[in-house]
C-alpha cells in the first residue's frame, strides 16, 4: 500500500517528525512522547470533546488514548498510516465506547447535530497549518450530498451507529450504510488520502 | 460485491455495534481489499478532527505524562500484525501426527461410528490439506480439509479447557467471508472432530470461545484461525 500521507506531519523545519517522535517513544523516550502530545493533543482532545461532549469525560478518554498510544508506540507502522491518523483512530474508538456505555444513564439529544455550529475559532488552539487543513476538510465536506454529510457527521462526531443514523435520517439501513461509505470515499479522494 | 464489504465505511467511523464489529473484523482477516480500504477511510475520518480542535486543559498534559512514566511500551511486533498472531503454519508431516491422535471422534448429535469413517476419509484424502497452529501453553490444534471430500476435521492435542460456562465453537469461513457455525468442541484436551457442513470452498476455519450452547455468529475474535491455501 502507498504510504498514507494526507495528514500533514506538522513538524516545523528542523523539528523531529511525528514518526520520529513515536519511534523514540517506543524506546521509552518520555520527552519525545511529550512533544508528540503537544503536537497532537488539540486535535485529540477536540475530537474526544466533540464526541462525548462532557469535558471531564473527554479528558479521561484523551488520557486513556494517549496511554494506549504510548504503550503501543513501538508497534506503530508508518507504512500503514500517519501518526496523527493512528492516534485519532484510538481516540475516536474510545470516545464512541464511552458515549455508548453511558448512553443508558444520560440519553443523548438526537437533535444536537442539526443545531451544532462550527467550533468558535477564538476558542481553539489551531495552528496556521491546522486551520488550513481544517479549511480544506470543510471545503471537501461541503461537496457531499446532504445525506452523505449528515450520515458521516452523525456517525463520526455523534458516535451513532449506522442503524441509529438510518432511523434518524429516515432512510433504509442499506442506504445509510452506502451513504456513509460513499461520503467517506469522496472525502478520501478529495483529500488525496492514499494516493 | 457482497454486502459485508460495504460496512467498511461504518467500521472506519466506529459506527457498528459490537456484534457487527466482530463479524466485520472476522471478514477483514480474509479480505485484503477491505483492510486497505478501511486503513484509508480511517485516515480520512481522522482528518475530520482537524475541524474540531480544542485546547486541552494544562492538567491533562501532566496526567498523561505522569501516567506513561508507569507504563512500559510494548516490544515491537513481529512482521505479522498482532491481530493475526495465529497465522497458520503448514506442517508437512502433520498427517502422521493426526494418525497418532485420531482415535476417537466426538459428535454430540450423532452416533460415533459413521463419523469416524468420515473423519478418516477426509484425513486420508489425497488432497488433504493440514493447517496446524501452536497455541503455546494452550496446546495445539490443526484442521485438515479435503476439497474432494468437501469436509474438514479438527484435531486438538493437549488443549486447555474453555473458561467456566464457555465452550469452544468451530466456524468455517465462506467465500463471502461469513463465519458459518461448524460445531461445538467437546470439553476434552485431545479430540478429532468432523466439522459440520461443506468445507470445500471455505477460506478458513476458526475457533472462538462462546457461551455454553454456542452462538449463531462469533461473539469474539478467534483464538485460532486456520487459513486454507487451496480452494
Key terms:
heterodimer, A: 195 residues, mainly alpha, 9 helices, 0% strand, globular, B: 231 residues, alpha+beta, five-stranded antiparallel sheet, four-stranded antiparallel sheet, 6 helices
Task: Please give a structural write-up.
The complex is a heterodimer of chains A (195) and B (231). Chain A is an all-alpha fold and 195 residues long. Chain A has helices spanning 18-26, 30-52, 55-71, 83-102, 112-115, 128-142, 146-156, 162-169, 173-191. In chain A, helix 2 (30-52) packs antiparallel against helix 3, helix 3 packs across helix 4 and helix 8 (162-169) packs across helix 9. With 231 residues, chain B is of the alpha+beta class. Chain B is built from six helices and nine strands, in the order H-H-H-H-E-H-H-E-E-E-E-E-E-E-E. Chain B has helices spanning 8-12, 18-30, 32-48, 58-68, 94-101, 112-124, and strands at residues 89-90, 129-134, 140-146, 151-157, 166-173, 179-184, 191-194, 204-211, 224-227. In chain B, the strands form two sheets. In chain B, strands 1-2-3-4-7 form a five-stranded antiparallel sheet, covered by helices on one side. In chain B, strands 6-5-8-9 form a four-stranded antiparallel sheet. In chain B, strand 5 (166-173) and strand 6 form a beta hairpin. Chains A and B meet through helix 2, helix 3, helix 4, helix 6 and helix 7 of A and helix 1, helix 3 and helix 4 of B.
Can you count the helices of chain A? 9
Name the helix and strand elements of chain B from N-terminus to C-terminus, one letter apiece.
HHHHEHHEEEEEEEE
**Could you describe the largest sheet of chain B, including whether it forms a barrel?**
5 strands, antiparallel
- Average residue pLDDT of chain A: 84
- Rounded to an integer, what's the Rg of chain A over CA atoms? 17 Å
User: Percent range for helical residues of chain A?
Assistant: 55-70%
